[in-house]
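Changelog-adjacent note: as of this version, every example in the card shows the full chain rather than a window. The one below runs 218 residues end to end.
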Amino acid sequence: MRHLIDPLDFTKEETQKLLDLADRIHDDPEAYQDVADRKRLATLFYEPSTRTRLSFESAMLRLGGKVLGFPDAGVSSASKGETVADTIRIISCYADIAAMRHPKEGAPLRASLYSKIPVINAGDGGHSHPTQTLLDMMTIRRRKGRLDNLTIGFCGDLKFGRTVHSLIKSLARYDNVKFVLISPEELRVPDYIINEVLEPRGIPYIETRNLEGALPDL
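Full-length structure tokens:
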């Protein structure tokens, strides 16, 4: 059984195959409209979400499956003190796969330790958002035709932006990529991204506080 907690849980080769499959589904959705028949997705969203939750539900329905779950912690037993571990134990009896959004970093990982079904991290705190990363990579590849030999700019909240952290880690595995990181000083990318992801691989990057000044590099 495989979980998707961090984008690097999939190898580069597995990611490529998944993106290829996504392209085939995109180009011929009718061929895949029944592949999830008789399967149930549980959407366990402990914080409000519109796009991510509905995208999971829409995808499952388009593939012929069914959806159950809750849209925020206030309408679940978490409001009465039920733990993530307890919830996933129960949900494992009801569904075939679970997508979890949680405000606390590491909550989906904890759930995976107690789950009898695969757990997908749909965003945990400021840590990671692997499915958004896959969508971003698919979009870049469809627009540019490749994921290597690119200069990629990130602008805004790079400190708490889990989508940014996930995407940098994934794109760092490709050849000849360069990052331009644009943010105010108080929202700069976390040190671990620089020290554990970019510099050990010798990946060139620029940190700047000025969007206009960064445009020539982009």
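Structural remarks: The chain has a mean pLDDT of 93.
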